[in-house]
Amino acid sequence: MYKEIRLSGTGGQGLILAGLILAEAAGVYDGYEVIQTQSYGPEARGGASRAEVIISDEAIDYPKVTSPDIVLVMSQQACDIYGGLVKPGGFVIIDDTNVSSLPCVRDASILTLPITELARQDVGRQVVANVVALGALVGITGIVTPEAMEQAILARVPKGTEELNMKAFNVGLEKGREVVAQYETP
To answer: Which domain holds residue 106?
Structure first.
């Protein structure tokens, strides 16, 4: 297994933390080889932001994502920049709360979920949209086990927010599985 994942959005959406959590789930709790990198604009909030994770069952030779299998986009700006840069056969997961214009992709699947709206309405706090996104990512792709993700979330989120973040993860996981079921149904 060798998968490249790009999580993208704007600063303040928690995607750097989401990348760290995903990498920890894969490497520490599921036992894969992992590399995680991140990039963000000079603005503290509102600028471009991305976290990239490579997950493999063998040694990783190159530390940069070059052809992502999975792209998560949480803002229109991120969609415009990264949405179309996905490997054939890959997935683009889009937060359609914040993205109205979908990317042009060739031979890849575009899956939309109202990630930020789910965080607001189903969980009660928009600030956990990044964890809802991680749940959706796991529900759609199975890239790591839900148990590994739960352990990584609990290890990384601020003390006192564990219950809120677990609720966010489970809402995303359920919605991600629903999207896959709809996608697979003829």
So the answer is: 2-184
